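Researcher: I'm preparing a figure for a lab meeting and need a structural model of a single chain. I don't have an experimental structure, so a prediction will have to do for now. The sequence is pasted below. Please return the structure as tokens so I can convert it later.
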Amino acid sequence: MSPTLVRHQLPHSGSTRCDDPPAPARSRARTRDWAEIQERMLVPLYEAAYDRLGVGPGTRLLGLGCGSGLALLLAAARGAQVSGVDADESRLELARERLTPDGMPEHTRVVSGGLEAAAPGDAAFNVVTAFHPVGCVSTVEGLTASLTAAAGLAERGSAVVLGGWGPVERCATAGVLRVAQRLADSPGDYVVGSAGWRPSGRDDLEDLADRAGLRPDGSGRVSCPFGYADPASAVRGLLSTGLFDAALEAAEQRQVEKELAEALHPYQRADGTVWMPNVFRYLIARTR
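Model: Understood. Here is the structure written out token by token.
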């Protein structure tokens, strides 16, 4: 394994986006909450995509928006060579801790810069993943630009994995995320470039691939239930996603947490745990 982690700033179009550097409300504690509570909820999505592509020795993987590195760690455990880029330095620090637990081995490169700095020295990437951000509509323009740039660092015909929410009627968390939408006074009709969460459209991933000049080559759905030890953990985990940042700017944190806890109540089980079944979707596209 030869992991490379890069801090990458996606092109800015003038609007606030989830892949921009974190706002002051995104504390280091919230970054830890993401790594320790929320990120693991997406493991079935990561594993399904890796299984389908046969990720393993010989795979040279670039993870866009790698966050705190769990998806990279799973790929590296399969024998893949991994590189990651992210705009959030605090999450990137956690990724470094996970991928280089014993310090900085000689074969490991941890650099700061653009996508070019993540390119493997001996061969181009043959898998690119964009698991994050998921369900954040304001990332479309920036993510399109990053996918286009990443395709230029990959071999022709390389797999590009895009992830997103499944049908809203099969995502229990959708009802909870509407709290963020309401508190942020988001409009009912969303447009590309707006901030916040919205239900996924049927062809969102295909449209994103088309924007980035990629060729769709199959898709799948994966069960990704969100399970928490208690309501307090659920609140912390969901706030760590960044999807409530606009709500936190528009309302006091106490109010956001209170209304979020109330929205979670229908999903609290008799033993105090919180369980929300969800279906996520992934698209496999190919570079041209």
